[in-house]
Design goal:
four-stranded antiparallel beta sheet; Neuraminidase; mainly beta; elongated
Length: about 200
């Protein structure tokens, strides 16, 4: 079993990799499981989240361009989130305001997704986040970001808090292209013109 969710109607939902399904239990007795949803196609489930409508978001770790899939109680996939929005999904939950929160352990990020904007929407509901082409890295690394505006500034700091470099950020930035970057820990901070920011920890070998 992997993945656990609950809703306000006293149901407990548990996801099973072996059965490729989610089972529903009645709390607090937690007895008499009912098969609630069977995932269409194999699904290496990491976590699940139940929506207010009773649909289930599934975070998956099998090779796919859809790390998050939404299923209804009739075993039908009704929506998905592509890896262009969330590169990797490990944990997933929904808050009382309807935001979907997704953890990405591959890139050390947590995403907050406004589902009312639509998966293919403008992206205004996405919390800005940063990715590294490799981390740890040797010599050079490309830092890319999603959700930042055209007024964004990137600043690189060493472990002691000293500013190493600073420049305008238009979605990507090459760190170490001068070849004089020493080994150690660095922090890349990108701040939007609106004030939102994201920080990424980097290790140079």
């Amino acid at each position: 079993m992997t993945g656990l969710a609950a809703n306000s109607t006293s149901y407990l939902y548990v996801s099973s990799r072996a059965q490729n399904a989610t089972y529903r239990y009645t709390a607090p007795a937690v007895a008499s499981p009912v098969k609630y949803t069977t995932y269409t196609g194999a699904s290496q489930t990491r976590d699940i989240a139940i929506t207010s409508e009773g649909n289930i978001w599934v975070a998956r770790d099998d090779p796919t361009t859809m790390p998050l899939r939404l299923y209804n109680a009739n075993d039908v996939m009704i929506d998905n989130i592509l890896d262009t929005l969330v590169p990797s999904a490990c944990g997933v939950t929904m808050d009382e305001s309807g935001y979907l929160w997704v953890s990405d352990t591959d890139n050390d990020c947590i995403y907050k997704i406004d589902l009312t904007e639509g998966i293919e929407g403008s992206g205004e509901g996405i919390t800005p986040y940063l990715l590294a082409s490799s981390n740890p890295f040797a010599g050079q690394v490309t830092i890319t970001g999603i959700g930042f505006d055209s007024q964004s500034i990137i600043s690189i700091y060493d472990i002691r808090g000293n500013l190493v470099s600073s420049d305008s950020f238009f979605g990507s930035y090459m760190l170490g292209d001068s070849g004089d970057l020493s080994q150690g820990i660095y922090f890349a901070r990108v701040r939007c013109g609106s004030g939102s920011e994201s920080v990424l920890k980097l290790t140079c070998l």
